[in-house]
């Protein structure tokens, strides 16, 4: 029978690859989240304890990630740093994405003068240089996690807003919007049901990208001497303060915090990609999940 | 009763597509609209369904003039029309499963209770099997999608049906079946019908009366006319 | 090495030197404070410092003549000196310079340093007389201040005029260009009264980031640079020489009197014994520094022998035990319901201070004192200074009065960044006053000995380290010297303090 | 000469939750040069999927089996369209050797480009025409060929009426002069005049050397140009007949095909009773049995396609009057 | 009604530009005032900043005198109003940190910043787009994974880090390019040749820091478009792969990229600020930070006006471009 003769389509291989990617991403994210949640209560870290005698030890069994230039264990600091940085990154990304999507969707879906006014406000907002606002906000309060979150969240929603608005303007002209209007959908319903789901991939990408970007901001602020207190472990400060040791030939204080930024980001991106395809399946990707 | 009074509409004020068209649908009447391709039938249908603002002229629904178009029209007026669009692929949100596609108007008008059942029921009347309801538009054939679109148009039980070449891409049997569904619905509810199409035989058979585009008092010129464009185009061999 | 900018190109042009520095001056006008501590390259002062920081005549022909009461200083000026625009230098310029600085309309933040001056008077073209309000022994040290040309600077707005960025002076170098944020370029003044410098072109590249500076030095882009000790360590190859300039630059923890814990003399003394200064020097400074027991470095002639304190945790603990600071359950001592805990602020972004603060806190913890390290900008820190400890820095080599008076005098408590700890010790106040007014060296020495001994008895500050400033310079300039350097080491410090005297090997 | 020879073509869609959809099952037919085969069938029976399979444009969840041999011509060797890899299909087959008029023309145009841009680009790629003026002329000629008004060339797809989009798609498919043209409902949205002109143009295009597979519901159009008619039901070919016989006397032999013709508005305008089967849950036997008046126990087994017909109870017309269609003979075996 | 050869839709574009210009005035006023207000509220003290290290030992009296001299003891609104009225007559005020008229500060530096930023931006857009398209071509492939990982890595990598790494690699290890500054450190004149070699590294680093957004958005836009019907249509016509990718998929997926052109300007300025610091590039961005931490009101206001103008211009260009790129969006806004 013809059914038996069907060869295995290349799709199946791709599917397993996809599944694997999804599983790995999920495991990694879960692992990091668990580490961040469980390790701090179990293993306390005295943020200000230094051990000048154990300075710059390369990775070993005692210190799997080695120690930094004042003798602190890097593994523990990375985990603690990830906690702070994930908080900064995720909260800032959420703020930016929710705000940006809401404003962009409102402007795009309502159109006309509302759109113009809102977008000019967005322009005004986006013209405040990010780092500058960061500097002011951080200076207004004292250096810490929340000023960084606020400054990143408050400045970065504008690009999301613009992207969302542009996509919505393009979606708005699709014939299926006519169908929804005729079906009695209110503007809000239209936005919620048809427009926003259409721009979620874009907004989601912005959100995922915002996470490393927020960490970036945090370290840029410390570079300018305005970020988190530099003795407090955060991935940004770890990377930022490891530069000197790298030039002197010690690679581990840079490598591990760097990996701690990049690996979770990639894992989150992997998850977001999977979620996106579930939400927005298209011809080709349908099977690959 | 639906009155389209000296409507002029189009996409560029300087060159309207529909010019000074007047058409009246008596209550419960089925009117077929015939016309050459590109003459403005779909545009007129969109205006009639309050989806496109005409440059001038009025749409009067049951004696009440339309107060606006698209979102400016009150919901009650908008949902008095069930519209089946010409191109099912374009008029279905690619993200919605057919079940949601059909149920969406119910939910959008604040009647989410039992929407799913109602949708399944309506889908059944247009001949959509339950296994199709879980699929998304790109996983069904164009004809199946068109059936879903018809179900969507019927689900709010509109007083007016606007079918823009609903059967253009359907085989004879499905056409007959869907026409049957529409007729059944009209018998039940007394809804009026504006059916746009090219197939005179079909429209004659389906509708109470069939009007030609050219009879609508619309003067048209330019390319999208009854005259075959080929005859105007110098580059035709 | 980099094309066009590499050492090959410069190897032949031995008359050229490019150095990398971390700071950029705000202005090049002496009237606004530029070069007030000497070595200003473009300008000369009446006097100047030599390698040992002894005063030598510059625009003056000899050291000043000081009146009996110590309130009149008379300078004879060098004749035949011209500014680089060709106009002669006269006493009028000296009077103009000092009077302008003293004018409150002039935006000069260091005016306080000339507080003692009552008036400046020109006697003819080549004699200048300073009249002081009170006898001020170190006054001559202040006259290394550069002299600006009255005929140029006097013709324009002192605060905003052109002169602030395009200065003209009598110095060994002329400014060619100042590309802000990038570099300052100088060329030798061929008519310099002290003889034309051998280094014809001198560039100071402004590179704020230590790591970038190190990299650019490595790439051959720079001939010399100031570097943190750990980065300087890597330059061990044959082409470069490393200079560790001794300095008066100390790192100190202020122990404000207003805080119940830090104001307690026993706590102060215990902390003073408990800190491991040697460890800090070895690890944080990579050996480039010395333990500090007071503002005066141990190798300075002003240092009072016997005021060194060895690291002795046990003695410190005993001291607290005796004084009634008993360890509580959490390992932190307390007395009369007061926990031995206080915050310690450091300037955020300053790694050196951070590391000092953290080691200090670690040492204190061993003693049973909880020090909570916090970071902030000065704006955040300043209002907290009366109650919270701060990791501060300071030090001025020219005269002990310069930093000790402002650091310790009780009347200056809380005045800007003066006396941050609100230190209040009548014996010290008296000694400081005596040291500043007395003209006799032995009297002054005795006075500052008193200060240093008082600081052992009641250490209102925990002095931690004196930091060597480390410079790496290409060997082709021969063996260079460094001065003893102050806390602020901008353009004027480093082996290029006397670049005009360099004799590069062919 | 045979242009296309399809054997045992089967397409299934794997579904995430439900059983696979058997969109095309064991389809075999031949298409000769100069021939026009009309493929008719109820909505959802697998016509478009068949066309997509021939172009290798199926979605990723599709699995295919069987073969579709496209005859070689000139330098091109014969190609099995099902087995050929994507690179071959993209470089030498699509557009050049197999043209397609897609079923939803507007959806298959890039929304941000004008019709002219689409046409010009295709003309340049497929005919090698170079030079501004030459391209312009060729573009306009291609548009005129299907009566696409030149004044609308600079419009974007969303500014086209349904019929205009249809004509644009047809124009695009004709550019390559492919030996095999797959036209999926090429006449939707066109008025009678235009339908006639379009199908005539298609016929003319086919000439004596090319073949046309026209999927259509428009039986009038099919009658006008088709040489043979193939009827598809639930993924299978159930009847292949000469067009004259099919539309005239004796008419179709398969009960479904007869029902289809009866549904025409000019005839009974009565749909085939019952509803189309679900392709994910096809019965073991004849898929039409559930709707068939003649069904009996024999229908529980799948009737083979013999003599151009797959039915246990064909309409008993005076069979002798009909010449057994030769082309339909070949596959079944 | 016959649309003639379509040029650009000048009239709507001009109308949109006009509207934007009109809006720019209140936006600029609001932004400058906001900057004055925020700077005023910030704990930074202009006097201390002016005094620099000398301020650490200066007496309070001395500082108070300075405050009066600098005029920063006036109320905020007065200072803002004076600056605005001054600016309208062409006097941008005097920068306290730079000890120079603001106009001079800007004139000296802006060219270099614009050169650096523009170069970097063009490179980022081009390289980002190319990488994005390459990645989207085969999703899940090695290229895709490499590009995605690279993009996320670059996004997370602090700019000063990248700068350091670039200097280490290209100036130190390879010795190909100079490590910083506008010209060779020893030279005193700016020549085109030196400028070219000196701008490469900072521009490349800045571009690398801006590239991830472009690459990932293009990847997503193109990737999505590749799954949709228009691309199927283009494939069916036998268009070359690069035409399908660039002409259809990229064109449809271009909208977010164009948007980014506008909304990345602030990021570009932020990046420029760090890059200028690392590479001792004498541009305006580095001066902005100094102006901010020194609360140098006139300079801060002037640089903010510049930044705002750049952002408004970027957004206008983006909006115009997507009106052109996607006719469905139009020029309303
Ligand atoms: N959004 C639009 N913008 C500009 N012009 C449009 C738009 N939609 C349709 N048109 C033009 O308006 C004219 C009428 O279009 P319409 O869709 O109403 O025609 P129609 O009568 O329905 O034709 P068909 O039978 O081919 O569907 C056509 O020339 C078409 O190109
Ligand atoms: N991607 C898909 N996944 C699952 N099922 C699909 C997919 N595409 C099509 N189908 C199913 O395959 C069957 C055949 O579809 P096809 O589009 O070929 O129908 P058709 O004969 O062209 O019908 P129409 O006349 O309505 O266009 C339909 O039942 C449809 O639901
Ligand atoms: Mg139409
Ligand atoms: Mg089909």
UniProtKB/TrEMBL annotation, chain A:
UniProt entry keywords in alphabetical sequence: Cell membrane, Membrane, Transmembrane, Transmembrane helix, Transport
Q: Which residues cross the membrane?
A: 22-43, 84-110, 195-216, 255-275
Q: What is this protein called?
A: ABC transporter permease
PANTHER family linked to this entry: ABC TRANSPORTER, OLIGOPEPTIDE TRANSPORT SYSTEM PERMEASE PROTEIN APPC
Task: Kindly give the membrane topology term recorded for this protein.
Answer: Multi-pass membrane protein
**What domain of life does the native source organism fall in?**
Bacteria
Broad class of the protein's primary localization? membrane
This entry carries the following GO cellular component terms, namely:
plasma membrane
Q: Which family does it belong to?
A: Belongs to the binding-protein-dependent transport system permease family.
Stretches assigned to the ABC transmembrane type-1 domain? 82-272
Q: Name one GO biological process term.
A: transmembrane transport
Q: Which Pfam families match?
A: BPD_transp_1
UniProt organism field: Streptomyces albidoflavus
Q: Do the record's keywords include Endoplasmic reticulum?
A: no
Alphabetized InterPro entries for the sequence: BP-dependent_transpt_permease, MetI-like, MetI-like_sf
Keyword field contains Lipid biosynthesis: no
Automatic annotation (TrEMBL), chain B:
Q: Name one Pfam family in it.
A: ABC_tran
Q: Tell me which domain of life the UniProt entry assigns to the organism this sequence originates from.
A: Bacteria
Q: Which residues form the signal peptide?
A: none
Question: SMART domains given for it?
Answer: AAA (SM00382)
A Gene Ontology biological process annotation?
A: transmembrane transport
Keyword vocabulary terms for this entry: ATP-binding, Nucleotide-binding, Transport
| InterPro entries membership | AAA+_ATPase, ABC_transp_ATP-bind, ABC_transporter-like_ATP-bd, P-loop_NTPase
Tell me one GO molecular function of this protein: ATP hydrolysis activity
Boundaries of every ABC transporter domain copy:
2-236
Identify its protein family. Answer: Belongs to the ABC transporter superfamily.
Kindly give the PANTHER family that the UniProt entry links to this protein: D,D-DIPEPTIDE TRANSPORT ATP-BINDING PROTEIN DDPF-RELATED, TRANSPORT ATP-BINDING PROTEIN
What is the name of this protein?
ABC transporter ATP-binding protein
* Species in which this protein is naturally found: Streptomyces albidoflavus
Automatic annotation (TrEMBL), chain D:
Q: Which InterPro entries does the entry mention?
A: AAA+_ATPase, ABC_Ni/Peptide_Import, ABC_transporter-like_ATP-bd, Oligopep_ABC_C, P-loop_NTPase
This entry's Enzyme Commission designation comes to 7.2.2.11
Where it sits in the cell: the answer is: Cell membrane
Reactions catalysed, semicolon-separated, are: Ni(2+)(out) + ATP + H2O = Ni(2+)(in) + ADP + phosphate + H(+)
Q: According to Swiss-Prot or TrEMBL, what is its membrane topology?
A: Peripheral membrane protein
Going by the UniProt record, its keywords in alphabetical order are: ATP-binding, Cell membrane, Ion transport, Membrane, Nickel, Nickel transport, Nucleotide-binding, Translocase, Transport
What's any GO biological process attached to this entry?
Answer: peptide transport
Domain of life (superkingdom): Bacteria
Translocase is among the record's keywords: yes
Residues forming the ABC transporter domain are 6-259
Q: Give the UniProt family note.
A: Belongs to the ABC transporter superfamily.
What's the subunit arrangement here? The complex is composed of two ATP-binding proteins (NikD and NikE), two transmembrane proteins (NikB and NikC) and a solute-binding protein (NikA).
PANTHER family membership: NICKEL ABC TRANSPORTER, ATP-BINDING PROTEIN (PTHR43297:SF13), OLIGOPEPTIDE TRANSPORT ATP-BINDING PROTEIN APPD (PTHR43297)
Q: What is this protein called?
A: Nickel import system ATP-binding protein NikD
Q: Which organism is it from?
A: Streptomyces albidoflavus
Automatic annotation (TrEMBL), chain E:
Q: What is this protein called?
A: ABC transporter permease
Question: How is this protein situated with respect to the membrane?
Answer: Multi-pass membrane protein
Which family is this protein grouped under?
A: Belongs to the binding-protein-dependent transport system permease family.
PANTHER family according to UniProt: ABC TRANSPORTER PERMEASE PROTEIN, DIPEPTIDE TRANSPORT SYSTEM PERMEASE PROTEIN DPPB-RELATED
Domain ABC transmembrane type-1: from-to ranges? 110-318
PROSITE patterns membership: ABC_TM1
Q: A GO BP term, please?
A: transmembrane transport
Predominant location category: membrane
Q: Which residues cross the membrane?
A: 110-136, 157-179, 199-218, 299-325
The reply to whether Magnesium figures as a keyword in the UniProt entry is no
Task: Extract one GO cellular component term from the record.
Answer: plasma membrane
Keywords in alphabetical order, please.
Answer: Cell membrane, Membrane, Transmembrane, Transmembrane helix, Transport
